[in-house]
Amino acid sequence: MGQAGQVFHIWKFGDEWEVRDGDNREVIAVFDDDESAVDWCKQVARELDFATARICCWEQFDGELA
To answer: Which residues partner with 20 through β-bridges?
Structure first.
């Protein structure tokens, strides 16, 4: 059985989609479309043997994190 949990945050930022870490602080990958970003997150989760992963897609990143 794989490791529990990983969270990926995907933000629309200008014309790109940024994948951020679970803390939503650090950009770890950038893509031209959301579908590619989601596919990349799924692949990383499989490679790291995560039993579960959460992928959160957000419409627009305004540069402010709560």
So the answer is: 9, 27
